[in-house]
Amino acid sequence: QEFREQMKIISCRWRDLHTKKAQLKTYMEKSEMTIKKNDKIQFQALKKASKEREKKMHMERELLRAKELLEDLRNKRQKLCNRVQKYSIFEKYLKNVVEISQFEEIQEVIWRYETLLRVRKDLLQSQHCHKEMSEQAKVLLDQYMEEKEAEILQYKNELEQLQQHFDQTQSDILYWETHLANIQNTSAKKTQELGTIKLAILNLFQ
């Protein structure tokens, strides 16, 4: 009876242990899931913090560039103000010009001045183009003159050679004409002698 009672007690304890073991396992699984979830949340938090730091650094850089740009714009504004102050005398001068001229506004004077500047620029450019064309034409003319002078010199040399050949030919003609006259004279003499001989032979024959 005691043994059965102890076995019942042990069985109850064993069931309790199994129940507690199952509860402990469930708790461990929940705890592990919670830890993983916390790790994930912590990683996301770190990632978000890193992005926030990068965003903050980017914003700080942008702010620094904006400050530098603002300072640069302030400097430019100051320079422009100084230029306006410096050139204010010209505004007074232009107003006086408008008063004593046919222009009605300062802007018309400026437009007229810009038009004259463009015309002057076009004239200078045209003059420059004409000058370049003139220089090119001069170069071409010099080349043409050199070529023609070389041709003229060549023709002169050929003409001298032809003149020498003509003189030589004239000398040869005079020589051969003299030689032909001598031959003709000799032939005439021989013909006369032949006639005399024929006449003598005829007389002798008769």
From TrEMBL:
DUF4200 domain span: 1-99
Keywords of this entry: Coiled coil
Annotated Pfam families: DUF4200
GO CC entries: cytoskeleton
Chain coiled-coil ranges: 49-83, 141-172
UniProt GO BP: spermatid development
Cross-referenced InterPro entries: CFAP_domain-containing, DUF4200
Record protein name field: CCD42 protein
Source species: Pedionomus torquatus
